[in-house]
Amino acid sequence: MSVKELSTRMIEAVLDGDGLQGVAELAAAEAGGPVAIVLPPRGLAARAPGGGELNGLTEYARARVAETEASSPHPIVLERTIEAGGRIVGVVLLLEDESDDAEVAAVLVDREEVLRAAALAALAEVAVADAREEAERRLRGGLIEELRAREIDSAETTSKAARLGCDLARGAIALVAEINSTSPSHATALVEAEYDGSLAELADGRLYAILPARGGDDAPEKTLQGAGRIANRLRKHGMAAVSSFYPDPGELHRAIKEAELVLDVITREPEIADALEEGIAASGVYRLLFRALISDPDEVRSFYRDTVEPLVRYDNQYRSDLLGTLEEYLASDCNMNATARAIFAHRHTVAYRLERVKELTGLDPQISEDRERLGLGIKAYRILAPALPR
């Protein structure tokens, strides 16, 4: 086979989807010995015949790319560097085989041309992979951008996600994060590597991700746990937040809005981020409020007005701390002495303030049902605070 014909067949192998393995097999058959193609920066590698293990050749290729001293674990008959933009990005290696003999020298020129053709085909595979990744990135970004902008019905959302390897049939959770990093794209790679089947994309300075359901009947809890672990990993690079579990893919627009709201709130109120951690009892209450605020914001605002709004207005007008005292009283299991110690006040001061709470709200902190409403009202206030008039 002529070099031109070989080069054409190698390019066809790339375009037909056989990738580097197809190129390596053609090169090995033509050169009459084992061939390895390794591009460490791209994580691409192949060896023929048989697609055997690289057994240390990746480390050798990394050293060649870094242009440092390299030692191969296998005797190399011939080597051809793969270069792009004037830099080495990989190597094509013809390895010594038991069948090699003294006649090798007579075919060195032909073998050099074989390796040269393989190096060119490897660059074509890189170009094809880049084009594929760019197309997927645009489709992935397009879906997330659509979900940010509007509601999409379940069938369309599920179909578009499926083309990207993301199964939304049983629902999902949305994640949003602020990434303070010089390489924010690493965060998207982290999400997709750590959470199988996820979609992640950068948009408007934030990372957006869709995390499909895990588990069976326990999918809401198990998916939320997995999402929480990803969020904790991302918090090394900035604040991260997740939505509650949405079983209907048609509601992922709301899931993203909820995650955005959670992120905005925990950025301002870090203690709420702590409450949302797995195992904290308040987590479920906050998640219900966040979800309610997305689906029916008037209901949450109405509940706030009917509970602690009079305390907020009174504190703002008289520079008092009725709300803070009430919050500490509830956190101290309604122990008057513990509350007094926590706020550095006399027990009688605490009693007076709680009486004022009762007068202003019509809810008695010493009655269980009223305490629950006041506690929920405080949480609603923490979430609504940025949008409230001063």
Care to count the β-strands? 8
**Count, helices:** 16
Strand order of the largest sheet: 2-1-4-3
Largest sheet, in brief, is:
4 strands, antiparallel
Cα gyration radius (Å): 31 Å
What would your notes on this structure say?
With 390 residues, this protein is α+β, with helices and mostly antiparallel strands. It has 16 helices and eight strands. The protein has a four-stranded antiparallel β-sheet with strand order 2-1-4-3, with helices on both faces. The protein has a four-stranded antiparallel β-sheet with strand order 6-7-5-8, sandwiched between helices. A hairpin with a 2-residue loop joins β6 and β7. α1 packs parallel to α4 and α10 packs across α16. The radius of gyration is 31 Å and the shape is elongated. About 3% of the residues have low confidence.
Features:
390 residues, alpha+beta, four-stranded antiparallel β-sheet, 16 helices, 8 strands
Brief account:
It contains 16 helices and 8 strands. With 390 residues, it is an alpha+beta fold.
Outline the fold blueprint.
Layout: H1 3-15, H2 19-31, E1 35-39, E2 44-48, H3 57-65, E3 76-84, E4 87-95, H4 108-149, H5 154-162, E5 172-178, H6 185-194, E6 199-203, E7 206-212, H7 219-234, E8 240-242, H8 252-268, H9 270-275, H10 282-295, H11 297-306, H12 309-318, H13 322-331, H14 336-343, H15 347-361, H16 368-384
